[in-house]
Design goal:
By secondary structure, this protein is mainly α. 68% of the residues lie in helices and 12% in strands.
Length: 168
């Protein structure tokens, strides 16, 4: 249960610290090239979601995020995720959602700074990384791990039924 609070808290603190640095230092310089033409640190303000979707609809994004967070906290509290991998995926998604939600609520926009220029890609932040890693893990959990866990549970149930039948 402690990990349900600790992992999201660490993620949110890391996200907010990097965003604070970007807002105080990077905002003044605009962009810093770490690898010219490939990867830069660039200060951006995003009023939308991923790829600036729903730009300018702050309250819609806040409401949807709040509803999703409630659902994820319920899933964690009721142990819907049957192993640590699945629970960690939810914790990372929660951290990313809260990090960006704080920006939207307090600032009216999300601070982004990681600018991968090798391909046409939106500027992103630590919360976005947490969300993407969490969603990727969730996909692995739902598509690969959960079916195996269910199959194992059914097989264990059949073995249990067999044993109970032989004892009858």
């Amino acid at each position: 249960m402690l990990l349900n609070i600790l992992i999201p808290l660490i993620g949110v603190v890391a996200d907010q610290l990097v965003k604070y640095w970007a807002s105080t230092v990077l905002r003044e310089t605009g962009t810093i090239s770490l690898w010219e033409g490939v990867f830069h640190l660039t200060y951006c303000e995003n009023t939308g979601a991923a790829f600036s979707l729903l730009s300018g609809h702050r309250w819609v994004l806040l409401a949807v995020t709040a509803a999703a967070l409630i659902g994820m906290f319920v899933a964690l509290s009721k142990n819907y995720m049957k192993n640590a991998f699945g629970r960690t995926s939810l914790r990372l998604i929660i951290a990313g959602a809260v990090g960006n939600m704080l920006d939207r609520f307090l600032l009216g926009y999300v601070v982004d700074m990681f600018d991968f220029r090798l391909i046409d890609f939106p500027v992103f932040n630590v919360a976005d990384i947490l969300l993407c890693v969490g969603v990727g893990m969730m996909a692995v959990y739902v598509l690969v791990m959960e079916p195996r866990l269910e199959k194992q549970a059914k097989e264990a149930g059949k073995d249990g039924d067999h044993l109970s039948d032989s004892r009858s």
